[in-house]
Amino acid sequence: MVKYNREEQIASVRGALALRSEIEKIVDSYCNEDFRNLCYLGIGGTWASCLQAVVHMKERTDRDVFAANAAEYNTTGDRRVGRGTVVVISSVTGTTVEIVAGVRKAQADGAKVIGFVDNADCELAGMVDNCITYKSNEQLKFFMTADRFMFNWGEMDEYEEFYGQMDKYLPEGLVEIEEKADSFGEEYAKAHLNDRLHYFVGAGTMYGATYSYAMCYWEEMHWIRTKSIHSAEFFHGMLEIIDDDTPVTLFVTEDSQRSLSERVARFLPKINHNHTVIDAADYPIEGIDAKFRGNISHLIIHAVTNRIDAHLEAIGGHDMTIRRYYRKFDY
Amino acid sequence: MVKYNREEQIASVRGALALRSEIEKIVDSYCNEDFRNLCYLGIGGTWASCLQAVVHMKERTDRDVFAANAAEYNTTGDRRVGRGTVVVISSVTGTTVEIVAGVRKAQADGAKVIGFVDNADCELAGMVDNCITYKSNEQLKFFMTADRFMFNWGEMDEYEEFYGQMDKYLPEGLVEIEEKADSFGEEYAKAHLNDRLHYFVGAGTMYGATYSYAMCYWEEMHWIRTKSIHSAEFFHGMLEIIDDDTPVTLFVTEDSQRSLSERVARFLPKINHNHTVIDAADYPIEGIDAKFRGNISHLIIHAVTNRIDAHLEAIGGHDMTIRRYYRKFDY
Where are the alpha helices (DSSP H) in chain B? Predict the structure, then answer.
């Protein structure tokens, strides 16, 4: 399999899951009477991950939990962020200007910041109140943080059972999905490599990932044009420009918003013959209960799109690490 | 001027502003100790207006104010909506299924609903707790509601002064902008009528409008493909697929997020020769103070895009009222 290292992938997810005791200690320290609200703060791809974590929490929580876009927070502000606020951020390089400024502002406003900063040597790693350094697996880090908060608030009684299964079955489960999806990924990459514009549709915990898959992978890494849209919003305008041959990919989750994407799945065949449905339900993971599937839909679909990306790069020859403009000059 | 009736336009805005006493009475009745939070609930175009109202309020308010997408609320839920919640909705026909279901759910959860329902005879008009019936001007209705809440909360001391100027100068001011922008609108429409894909970029109170202008006007009404993006997010992926001749339109507001769009305005000329900047600051309205300009940027830009739409329809011959799929069959 191209661009694939089974053992590395397993170790990566296993290592992320092993962060849990560290995450628990940090989250537990904030679950006291001073706690007021929880803010996931991001920009670009990390903003998308914030949206995912928040929609996951909304299914269960009574607490004040929200996502804030760092650039908007730095300009318009958000007065909910202050004393008693726990801010969660993620940064690979630690040098994203909006995040550095956002953390500074949040702390000045009285908030505490939990930072997943992959590069331990950057300024940001030293700035945040709690720093966890581990490569990749951003969604898993965000969701583990979310789940621990909800467990402490009495809103996720199944926490231990769920993470027991995750620890045991997720790492191998995801690589098995990559292996199962590899030939599909190759066919799909061949079919869509030269698309002039590709539409991605998704909802629930997958909406943020649909947005970032379209923008951070296809646009930024593959240089293929996309539009992403929420499955519910698809019916309020965008549907009109779908022709018979317009390339559309629909991601279907097993979470609370599954019905919104199923509606798109029923509609598309009536007007279009160039769409692909990637349904998390088609990729079981042995050992993880049906009742927990909604929590991991986005990880399952990510395993599938990983194979698309690998083949797009291999067949198209466009190196995913090359940027035209991003951080290439001052702007 | 094509598709233009000066007196009708003036009367429409004047009539919307005249709703203020009715809005004030309703809002005032909710500003008591039972108030807990304020939720703008929408879908598609009205969802976009919700985003606009909320970013406007965030500049000033300490209160818990948020936008909820009706389809997401109906599926995932939002436990912040309940007793003490005031929900604000808008509907032209009153028959949008997500809104009808959302209002029913919000009321069942204990919330009160203020509805701007243009059609007084529909079921929705009878369902909401307070119904205001007046055609068009959705953003104005939403912002007037927002401002009255903030005035009552002591967060908008300039309320009377601002609306004094609005009542006196906005209706004529907006038609004068339409007249000033007409020849620009015609040139722009000629240049972009046959675009295969047009990018719209905006921030602040204009972000929601950028999203809905792209989707509800160009995609739904003109059948031209678009992608819309927040000015800050533009730099986190989408920039990579902008070629020298890619059509891009940037909306620049005079509100708290002006700097985010100015950054895009500085960047675009370095890589692209087919972009248009529509800056609210280029369209003064005599009688409305500089300090209030940020409150009306979206109305000013809407007056400009009105002229684009009129000419796109006139030159292209594609009737904006025709739909291919929307409400044409069950889905």
Answer: 6-17, 20-30, 45-58, 70-75, 97-108, 123-127, 138-152, 159-192, 207-212, 231-234, 258-271, 293-316
**Which B residues in the span 221-240 are in contact with A, Cβ-Cβ below 8 Å?**
223-227, 229-233, 235-240
Q: Within a 10 A sphere around the Cβ of A144, how many other Cβ atoms?
A: 23
Amino acid letter for position A15: G
Distances (CA, A) of A300 to A139, A204, A218, A326: 12, 14, 19, 29
Q: Do B227 and A226 touch (CB under 8 A)?
A: yes
Of B268, B197, B173, B50, nearest to A331 by C-alpha is B268
Phi, psi for residue B101 in degrees, rounded to 5: -65, -40
The reported pLDDT for the residue numbered A330 is 85
Flag if B223 and A240 touch (Cβ within 8 Å).
yes
What's the pLDDT at B327?
Answer: 86
Q: What is the pLDDT of residues A91-129, one digit of tens each?
A: 999 999 999 999 999 999 999 999 999 999 999 999 999
The helix (H) or strand (E) run that includes residue A129 is none
Q: Residue A110's closest CA among A73, A77, A87, A82?
A: A82
In what side-by-side order are the strands of the sheet with B65-69? B65-69, B37-42, B85-91, B112-117, B130-132
> Cα(B103)–Cα(B126) distance, rounded to whole angstroms?
11
Q: Do A64 and B80 touch (CB under 8 A)?
A: yes
Say whether pLDDT at A327 is over 90. no
The DSSP annotation for B73-132 comes to HHHT--TT-STTEEEEEEESSS--HHHHHHHHHHHHTT-EEEEEES-TTSHHHHHSSEEE
The torsion angle over the Cα atoms of residues A126, A130, A134 and A138, rounded to 10 degrees, is: -110
Residue B242, token pair as written in the block? 């902008």
- Pairwise CA distance, residues A289 & A233, whole Å: 31
DSSP character string of A133-195? ---S-HHHHHHHHHHHHHHHTTS-TTHHHHHHHHHHHHHHHHHHHHHHHHHHHHHHHHHHTT-
Q: What backbone phi and psi angles, to 5 degrees, belong to B86?
A: -105, 120
Note the Cα A157 to chain centre separation in Å. 24
Which residues from chain B sit within 8 angstroms of residue A259, using beta carbons?
75
The per-residue pLDDT of chain A, averaged, comes to 97
Going by pLDDT thresholds of 50, 70 and 90, the confidence category of residue B234 is very high
Structural element, H or E, at residue B200: strand B198-202
* Distance, CA of A117 to CA of A94 (rounded, Å): 6
| Per-residue pLDDT tens over the stretch A4-58 | 999 999 999 999 999 999 999 999 999 999 999 999 999 999 999 999 999 999 9
Q: Do A43 and B236 touch (CB under 8 A)?
A: yes
- Assign A327 to helix, strand or coil: coil
Amino acid at position B138, single letter = E
The burial class, CB within 10 Å (0-12 / 13-18 / 19+), for B14 is middle
